[in-house]
Amino acid sequence: MTKPRTQRVGIVGVPPLSVIKALAAPHITIYDLDEPQGKIDIETASPFLPRVYCGILRTVIANSLIIRPDTIYIDTGPGKCDCAVHTATVLTDSMPETRIIRTRNQDTTDFGTPLCRTRMNLLEKMQAITASVQSPTPHQELRPCSPIAGFWGVPPRDFSLLSLFPDTTHIYGWARCMENKTPDNLKLELHYNPDIPTVFFAQSFCAKTALARHLATKHPHALYLDCDVTAGNSAKAKIQAFLELSGI
């Protein structure tokens, strides 16, 4: 019996659960194109996307051009962003050998957010959340912790930004929607805890910077922060100072 040919599939955003279930096969290798893959230079994307696009979508283009997946599933619905729609067009025209499939994840079944609320190194916690996108199975039950800090926003391109937070940090914003597998869940994205110091984060040039800054003005003890491709010393110093001044 002939084995199926290995398929290389890229995903952008959070594809619908039906897509993830269909990709759960041993002959399919999934690449999360939102995340840096090895040492691929983000400048590979420069001829295809302007620098005013966020570092995440520029990473998507750079990864796609080097990895050359057989198929790319890209969420172009409200669960991702309008810029993803145009990125899909760029990919379609630039990579005719790759099948670009536009999806719209408007799933409403709640999978829960145990990772966002458990005690764990924040960097490892975010890695676990982004990895969970590729699994169609229910989350493992984890004991929630009492939070002393909050991180609201999207998974940063540079995860080292998260190394400054205590293990008892709860995650809010679109990253929480991501774990819940409902990226188009505005009510969940708007949720935050006003009783704990919270950093409201978005990638520079991302439309979510508007919501991050708006919610930060409503929160009684917040820091609004955006950064582009990498988390520089300035961004890290702001987080460190904010947490220290908050008594953490």
List keywords for this structure.
single chain; alpha/beta; Rossmann fold; 2 domains; 4-stranded parallel sheet
- The N- and C-terminal alpha carbons lie at a distance of 60 Å
Total number of helices: 9
Please compute the radius of gyration using only Cα atoms: 18 Å
- Provide the domain count: 2
- List low-confidence stretches: none
Largest sheet: 4 strands, parallel
Side-by-side strand order of the widest sheet: 2-1-3-4
Run of helices and strands: EHEHEHEHHEEHHEHEH
From the helix content, strand content and strand pairing, which structural class follows?
alpha/beta
Mean pLDDT: 95
Outline the structure in words.
- The protein folds into 2 domains: 7-103, Rossmann fold (3-Layer(aba) Sandwich), CATH 3.40.50; 114-245, no CATH class.
- Helix 1 links the parallel strand 1 (7-12) and strand 2.
- With 248 residues, the chain is α/β, with parallel strands linked by helices.
- The protein has helices spanning 17-23, 55-67, 82-94, 114-117, 122-132, 174-179, 186-190, 208-218, 233-245; strands at residues 7-12, 28-32, 71-75, 99-103, 149-153, 169-172, 198-203, 222-227.
- It has 9 helices and 8 strands.
- The mean pLDDT is 95.
- A 4-stranded parallel β-sheet has the order 2-1-3-4, with helices on one face. Strands 6-5-7-8 form a 4-stranded parallel β-sheet, sandwiched between helices.
